[in-house]
Amino acid sequence: MLNRRDAIKLGSAAGMALVFPTKQLASALSDDPLELPPFSIPLSIPPVLKPTRRTGDTDFYDMRIAESWHEILPGVRTRTLTFNGGFPGPTVHARRGRAVVVRQFNGMGSPATVHLHGANVPASSDGHPMDPIAPGQSRVYRYPNDQPAATLWYHDHTHHLEGEQVYRGLSGAYLLSDPVDARLPLPGGEFDVLLMFRDAKLDGEGQLVFVPDDFMNRPTILVNGRPQPYFEVKRRLYRLRLINVSNLEVFKFRLSNGARFLQIASDGGFLREPAVRQEIDLWPAERAEVLVDFRSVPAGTSVELQNVVALSENKRDIIQFRVGGGGPGDKPELTIPGRPLVQTEIPGWPSRNPAPERVSKTRRFILRIDPVTGEFLINDRGFDPNRVDATIQHGSTEIWELVNGDGAFGIPHTMHLHLVQFRVLDRNGKPEPGHDTYPKDTVRLNPGDVVRIQATFDTQIGRYPFHCHFLDHAMHSMMGQFEVVPRR
Ligand SMILES: [Cu+2]
After folding, report:
1. Quick check: is 299 in a domain?
2. What are the tens digits of pLDDT across the range 35-55?
3. Locate the Plastocyanin-like domain: which residues (predicted)?
4. 476 alpha carbon to ligand 1 midpoint, in Å?
5. C-alpha 308: how far from its chain's center?
6. Within-domain flag for 109
7. Whether the predicted pLDDT of 85 surpasses 80
8. If you placed Cys at 12, which of 129, 260, 409, 416 could pair as Cys (CB 3.0 to 4.6 Å)?
């Protein structure tokens, strides 16, 4: 695979200059990186949002979207956009079978929409890019939570503004649990830790600088809104929920002590079988849940989570786990590598993997940048809210062939489909490894890749977007729409 460094060597810098004004790039380059010793700030965990009301089957919440100030660097106030003043926003805990209703008030001067990434929701609550909440208005989103347990996240999706508004802070986690989840012998409570990673550039005054597409000049990685934090852990097994909420940053995580992860879940929930992993790829919008075992790590030492594909040295070490005491007490059946954790059949599995003869349609989508205009296109067209790119009969299963047409430019893309969790069938003709197969809602497309995915559209009726989840690309129109229509 070409990495982005190779891409630049190969001359795509010329293409980039066409696409992005050099003046902006130059001004961004002139700023100094942060002068902050690594691992000098403790990790913070976003608060869990409290419902305003509960009924027999529904939890009601209120959130306020507004400009705020946040201390990213010690003693420095950074202007941010926030849900309820949080950077990132508060975490919503949801349970399968109980609906969640969120009333979002837009207290910003610009429109907002709220999309619950990875969720099966009615189109009216999907946070469609063209369905915004006007400034000073509020809107109610209804989430049925009729899907397996998963680490989901919510974020702004306002067309042309999502890149900047998410960058300035409009994202948060939404953790959906279900009875299967509750039965598994997984670490819980303080040992179930949310880690949201994102790219950032802070200027000399500690303010966020947003230059679209400028992946080379976002030298700071924030974890739950903190640069290179440390986190004190006990000598226990931990469940880490990794969410990449970056606009552009790609991660390949490893642990500095060489220990392996046990990956138990992907974007849309538990894997059929947990996978022992040395490294975890996590591109924008992807999630992975992993178990990390600190039991054999000597007390008083530390382990760093590192990004082995970081573009600069200061972005390699992401977070430091400082291992303290507190040894025994874990359930003995948990080991890495271990026997499969998920021994029960997960509801919804069989129907999501129908036989090939049930596939009713195959479509092909090519993601490509126009080298002349710099537009980010799907099948040579930019986003048009009045155009439906795929009309799908309710209940049908389709295969989509996704092509990254920017092999020559070395530019990665992803594909995210709203509404569904899909199965990745193969990549460049080779089967995808199990941990990257299902359930997925966002798939990585390396330059030149051809990836086939399969999805069944048997839930909602309505119009939903699909788009590159490098949000700066989506912002430049790399987005289409599918519409699920009643079966005739
Ligand atoms: Cu893209």
Report:
1. yes
2. 789 999 999 999 999 999 999
3. 68-179, 231-295, 376-486
4. 9
5. 19
6. yes
7. yes
8. 409
Contact 173, 45 (CB under 8 A): no
> At residue 26, does pLDDT exceed 90?
no
Distance from Cα 205 to the centre of ligand 1, integer Å = 31
Q: Residues whose CB is under 5 A from ligand 1 (ion)? A: 413, 468, 470, 473
* Rounded distance from Cα 470 to ligand 1 centre (Å): 5
Which are the contacts of 255, defined by CB distance < 8 A and separation ≥ 6?
Answer: 261, 292, 303, 304, 305, 306
Helices (H), 136-250: 162-167, 179-183
284 and 232 in one domain? Answer: yes
Q: How far is the CA of 103 from the centre of ligand 1 (A)?
A: 31
Question: Could you read off the pLDDT of 407-451 as tens digits, one per residue?
Answer: 988 999 999 999 999 999 999 999 999 899 999 999 999 999 999
Task: Specify whether 47 is located in the same domain as 177.
Answer: yes
285 CA to centre of ligand 1 in angstroms? 12
Q: How many domains does the chain have?
A: 3
pLDDT in tens, 173-227: 999 998 877 777 788 999 999 999 999 999 999 999 999 999 889 999 999 999 9
> What are the backbone dihedrals phi and psi of residue 419, each rounded to the nearest 5 degrees, phi first?
75, -45
For residue 252, the enclosing domain spans 189-323
